[in-house]
Amino acid sequence: MMLTSDKIIGIFCFIDGLLKTSHHYEDSRRQVSDSEIITTAVVSSLYFGRHQDKARQFMKMTGMVRRMLDKSRFNRRLHSLAELIYSLFMQIGYYLKYISCEMNYVLDSFPVAVCDNIRILKTRILKGKQWHGKQTSMRRYFYGVKVQLLITKDGIPVEFGFVPGSEHDAQALRKLPLELPAESKIFADSAYTNYEIEDQLMETEQIALKVHRKSNATRKDSASAAFIKEYMRKRVETTIREIKGLFLRKLHAVTFKGWLLKITLFIFAFTINKIIP
Fold it and tell me: pLDDT-based confidence at 113, cuts 50/70/90?
């Protein structure tokens, strides 16, 4: 991705527009606005691997944010905006789901490890067996969270959430909002098999959960249905690979909330980048 002034201005205008639409208030005496703070964080995630200080210096040197805060103050301001950033993401998701009338979605999860297995006993961010999960497809264990990700058929995230690494995807289904238009379809792999939730979604929300069936499943797929589900699943695998491509090899943070904020910013930045040409 090429970093240009036009791209940064586009990101800023988009974020500023979202804040105005949501009637966001901030003190007019501030030298650096919340829009500038969030834009810098997005630029950091897209182009600097979340090296926040490099992005902060870049925005100052190029004159994009002339009165840029120092490292400590910027970090405090950004952390105070964590809930607002998630709210802005949900606002984008609402637009895609209800204004653009998107009807087809794909659901999948991916692990994010807080540390290597050998360092589990030393980490201070997480404690407990619930964070110790297994990535079956890669035949490897990890210590951290699973990111549950719901995307459109074009690969744009509209919902996401965090669950402990040990939690099964079928259980995590109950923790996602899944606030979608009636008659929507959600495609997912066999790990999300839960007939009770499938029936509830259809009966109460008129949402069809299209889970890929295993050969021994009680409910079978026709050949055409299996083909469509496999095709849709490849879309979310591509999106996850692109999001993780923005990550550094390791995400460093002092607190668990700060660590989750970094992951949130990667997903938020990826979404904005998909929307803004």
Answer: confident
